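Components:
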Amino acid sequence: MDAKCPHNTEVNCGDCRMNALCLPLALQTKEISQLDEIVQRGRPLQKEGHIYHAGEEFKSVFAVRSGSVKSYTVTNEGQEQVTGFHLPGEIFGMDGIAHNHYTNSAIAMETAAVCEIPFSNLQELSIAIPSLQRHFFQLMSKEITNDQSLITLLSKNTAEERVATLLLSISNRNLRRKLSGVRFRLPMSRADIGNYLGLTVETVSRVFGRFQKQDILLVDKKEIEILNIDQLRNLAN
Amino acid sequence: MDAKCPHNTEVNCGDCRMNALCLPLALQTKEISQLDEIVQRGRPLQKEGHIYHAGEEFKSVFAVRSGSVKSYTVTNEGQEQVTGFHLPGEIFGMDGIAHNHYTNSAIAMETAAVCEIPFSNLQELSIAIPSLQRHFFQLMSKEITNDQSLITLLSKNTAEERVATLLLSISNRNLRRKLSGVRFRLPMSRADIGNYLGLTVETVSRVFGRFQKQDILLVDKKEIEILNIDQLRNLAN
DNA sequence: CGGCGTTATTGATCTAGGTCATCTGAAGTA
DNA sequence: TACTTCAGATGACCTAGATCAATAACGCCG
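Structure:
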């Protein structure tokens, strides 16, 4: 397998293009190789392939290496609730720590590759490398603040504000990966967007329509171009 | 100050009635006294007294000893968003870890006492006591799963389902403290309930009204008696 | 005790977004 | 190439809960 292939499973953490995003900055070379030993690089996942199912025993947290992943739960009435979208360089699976079982399921939204980090090893290593412990406390805290902004979004904002906010979030996360913040492909369906934002597909579709009519966006199926990011920011507020 | 006084600040962790809730079960007597040394027991807070403000430098997490506390953020439009209610034995303030500044403000909803746990000391101690590290990972993960159920509640459930779910949550948390799960006093106002659940005060009031008419609840201002907990569970689903 | 601000209740109306139904087009497949 | 499927867009209508407005009931303080 070619080292440049984005789904390559053979690379180690030190060489991975994503390491600036998922590892603590302060890590020494020696420490990186310690981490490398516990990280398991899984083979590429097909679209719709599960990384884990809700209820399974919690063993590991995961980092997205390529592609994209969504987390979701199923309510007692059987409806799906999307709880997060995970792009390359992002960590997911930390919801499982509390009860020793995953509360979410995680599924690839397109062809993807993930790194598996066994949590018991990570705990031990965190004791040897305090900056790693700190890093994981921070990652979990960030997840908490993210979830809380979603709570605020859902309880206070209109459909347009919610969609605008999601687009800006994806734009920012693309920038972090040195990709374009104004032209990108949405990895998720309209249904997933609606589900995540507490809206119906129809409403999402209509909001995209309105944004196009106002020359804020150019939408071609999943390809998005942000034409007026300032106005989008205004709308998101 | 009398040792039996609920707002007493002189007690240590080993004697505290709440220790089964906020400390890891596995802690040894010696370890408890190590923890005791870093925990600072603050003096009682007046109603509306702030524990910290959003934006302040993050230094500590806190445990509720008595009374009750609410966390909230203020949106860019200046509206308050309640992000959590904290009852005795519960830990709060973990949102601050991510950015080294609190993202929420925390305020006493009634006379309350809190224990302050300086986070840098806690991190060090977590390295010496692995079960403490594990415990805090779990606490943070629990916060994540709680926030995610709130997200689901807000995006999928009706006003009645939301109110029923909150009442059952408070009921369960009272049971954990060996208090009645069916008769209790709500520490928060209708406005706080509405804000937390993404509803207006009027809607909350009407839902309470309907629940009373159906003989599910007996409501007298903030005093609640659950008359039919099974039906409440059905409604919450 | 009486006046006043705050919190809760209740009623009347309005609206954002849900529901339902139809239509289009792209992608897969036989 | 024709057939099916599924994601997305769009239009017509409806409803849960918001908004606005009035009233009641409670502390709280001089």
